């Protein structure tokens, strides 16, 4: 009986390890202007509306490129019931972008990346008792002389 419970525990740990390994995702979006946005998260990638628009979901935030621009669009998988704030911070926890979130509109305004330096950022949407977050990496193309 003792070896059976040890075997069950080992199987449970092995299964948990496999499940965790399957949830890590890295993505890269390229804009027509040449700018790149890389994301790294703990949720599976999801494709909506065919191959044109790729959406990554993590903790309730979808981030996808706005066609023909240096902007990204944000959408939320949960409907807000209270006003909130969207905050984008760099690795030093310095706020580089902030906007208010309206509970009537489940998609935030486009985020223009033109004034944000290349680097890794944390995007947080805070509303009521909830905080949704996603790690985003922004990379711009090198210009050839």
From TrEMBL:
Per the database record, which ranges form the Secretion system C-terminal sorting domain? 63-138
Is the keyword Transit peptide in the record?
Answer: no
Superkingdom of origin = Bacteria
User: Per its UniProt record, what InterPro entries does this chain match?
Assistant: Secre_tail
Residue span of the signal peptide, if any?
A: 1-21
| Keywords per UniProt | Signal
What protein name does the entry list?
T9SS type A sorting domain-containing protein
């Amino acid at each position: 009986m003792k070896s059976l419970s040890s075997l069950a525990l080992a199987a449970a740990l092995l299964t948990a390890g496999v499940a965790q390994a399957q949830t890590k995702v890295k993505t890269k979006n390229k804009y027509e202007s040449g700018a790149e946005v890389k994301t790294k998260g703990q949720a599976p990638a999801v494709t909506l509306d065919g191959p044109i628009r790729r959406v990554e979901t993590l903790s309730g935030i979808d981030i996808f490129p706005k066609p023909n621009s240096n902007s990204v669009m944000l959408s939320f998988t949960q409907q807000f019931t209270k006003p909130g704030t969207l905050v984008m911070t760099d690795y030093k926890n310095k706020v580089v972008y902030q906007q208010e979130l309206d509970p009537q509109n489940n998609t935030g305004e486009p985020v223009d990346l033109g004034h944000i330096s290349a680097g890794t950022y944390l995007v947080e949407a805070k509303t009521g008792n909830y905080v949704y977050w996603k790690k985003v990496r922004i990379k711009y193309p090198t210009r050839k002389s």
